[in-house]
Design goal:
Elements lengths: L7 H12 L4 E2 L2 E2 L1 H7 L18 H9 L43 E4 L2 H12 L3 E6 L20 H8 L24 H19 E11 L4 H12 L4 E8 L15 E8 L22 E3 L2 E7 L1 E2 L12 E2 L5 E2 L3 E2 L2 E2 L1 E2 L3 H6 L4 E4 L2 E7 L9 E2 L7 H11 L12 H11 L5 E4 L6 H13 L4 E6 L9 H4 L5 H19 L1
Parallel strand pairs: 3-20, 4-5, 4-19, 6-18, 19-20
Antiparallel strand pairs: 1-2, 5-7, 6-7, 8-9, 9-17, 10-15, 11-12, 13-14, 16-17
Helix pairs in contact: 3-6, 4-6, 6-7, 10-11, 11-13
Length: about 500
């Protein structure tokens, strides 16, 4: 409610929307669609299968505009590998193999506008990143900000805008920050214009066997899937994961309690990627009640009536004591073995003769092929994401709804191995950096992260602001410092 009365024109438009919703786009009448709906012969311009929106061509111009920005190291805010701060006179640049021309740290946190940062990273990190994970604004209508890429402004106007700062040097809300309300006439278009150039630049940074994961919810999952199809190629779609983010609650929800979010995954080249096994997923112990020198195992009968019958699979098997076994008669029908004679001979040690039947052993695997449904609590819930950060800040939570470490580390563990680079250019509270450090500690890996966060102002009424964190970037940096110290203290 904006406090204004409806005009007769608006009432008619609302009535038309009720009857013909297909004739509207982003809240406005699409006259060509309306004519087509009413049976008129319409030749749509450039008719083809394509995702289109207001400002798309200008978004390409933003993507292709080079940047003059540079990255400035901040040794006074940095940590050494052991988690300790740099002292006066100590060398900051230590990693001779860094893509920054042999000058740089293992892990990098960059405070800045991510579109500009992604452009800066093109030279040093082009084709070198194994995995990207981002948790961008979901375009709920209540997001605290959206990147206002104003396509009509000049370069000088843009530089003045991104440089808008208050007396203490913090970016102002009138500069980089802008709420994308659902009442906005180009609500979806604004979000797509923000995402498109960033996804294009991010794809360039991926290795040929690289993969990207993007968290999203129902507000934009449909548009994001189409946008990533266009940028990565539909053939490089890996999967759409469904994460159960909460358990119960939602009594105040309208009609449906939404308990999940999505994580869309696309690869640079589908034929070049190979995920690791999911070692988090725990199979029931009841499936593996036995144990031998090769590990825990269960048993399954060698003969099954449901298998496609083959006379060649009906033969005698003798155990070590000379007892003869043949496939059973089940419900009046002859069954057959699941294995042929050669395999029975080659894997005889896996056979178990028991109660007049022949069984084969199946061993507990080291992990499973990653599944699209992330329903188990082992992948974390929203509340565990809160717990993760509260443990570091001594029961104080400076950031609302951070992603849980277990969720992000799951994707890192299936997509990377020991010595690879992970990028997150919507770093938020710093969950990705924390997850990389935790996973390295758990498996002895040496993965490196690059995290980018805009110095978005915290709400002056928030607990974070009251605690002295004026920007989200400050929260990210402090979390990384504390997580690094904890990881090193636990070694």
């Amino acid at each position: 409610m904006d406090g204004t009365s409806l005009t007769p024109e608006q009432e008619k438009i609302n009535a038309l929307r009720q009857i013909l919703p297909e004739a509207f786009s982003e809240g406005k009448i699409d006259w060509e669609k309306l004519k087509a709906t009413l049976g008129s012969t319409i030749n749509f311009e450039n008719e083809r299968y394509v995702l289109n929106w207001a400002g798309k061509s200008d978004a390409f111009k933003v993507l292709q505009t080079p940047t003059t920005k540079t990255l400035i190291p901040c040794p006074e805010e940095s940590l050494k590998k052991d988690g300790s701060p740099y002292q006066n006179g100590e060398t900051f640049f230590t990693d001779e193999n860094s893509p920054f021309g042999g000058r740089g740290a293992d892990n990098i946190f960059i405070e800045g506008e991510n579109l500009e940062v992604l452009k800066v990273l093109q030279k040093s990190y082009f084709g070198k990143v194994k995995m990207i994970y981002i948790d961008p604004p979901y375009n709920t209508g209540n997001d605290s900000f959206i990147y206002p890429d104003k396509f009509s402004e000049t370069k000088d106007e843009y530089q003045r805008r991104v440089g808008d700062k208050d007396e203490e040097g913090y970016m102002t809300k009138d500069g980089m920050f802008k709420k994308n309300s659902k009442e906005n006439g180009q609500y979806h278009s604004n979000w797509l214009n923000m995402m498109m150039p960033r996804l294009y630049l991010a794809k360039n940074l991926l290795r040929q066997d690289g993969v990207m994961f993007v968290s999203i919810d129902d507000n934009e999952v449909h548009n994001l899937r189409l946008l990533m199809n266009e940028i990565f190629g539909e053939e490089n779609f890996v999967g759409q994961f469904i994460w159960k983010k909460k358990q119960g609650g939602g009594n105040d929800s309208n009609n449906v309690v939404v308990e999940h979010e999505y994580i869309l995954s696309f690869s640079k080249s589908f034929c070049d990627i190979k995920f690791n096994l999911d070692k988090k997923y725990k199979l029931s112990d009841d499936l593996y009640p036995n144990k031998d020198e090769n590990g825990e195992y269960g048993l399954i009968t060698l003969d099954k009536s449901s298998i496609q019958f083959s006379q060649s699979l009906v033969f005698e098997i003798k155990d070590n004591e000379g007892n003869v076994y043949v496939p059973r008669i089940v419900k009046g029908k002859q069954s057959c073995w699941r294995w042929g004679k050669r395999k029975v001979e080659d894997e005889f040690d896996k056979l178990v003769f028991k109660d007049g039947k022949v069984y084969t052993k199946y061993y507990r695997p080291e992990g499973i092929t990653p599944k699209s449904l992330l329903m188990d609590a082992i992948y974390g819930r929203t509340e565990t994401g809160n717990d993760d950060i509260k443990k570091l800040f001594k029961d104080f939570n400076p950031f609302s709804y951070p992603k849980p470490i277990n969720l992000v580390s799951h994707f890192i563990s299936i997509a990377t191995i020991s010595n690879e680079i992970i990028l997150d250019f919507f770093a938020g509270s710093g969950t990705t950096a924390h997850a990389v450090m935790d996973l390295n500690k758990a498996d002895g890996g040496n993965r490196k992260y690059i995290c980018v966060q805009l110095p978005e102002l915290t709400d002056e009424k928030s607990e974070a602001y009251k605690a002295g964190y004026k920007t989200i970037a400050e929260i990210s940096k402090e979390r990384i410092r504390r997580a690094s110290k904890k990881v090193n203290d636990d070694l």
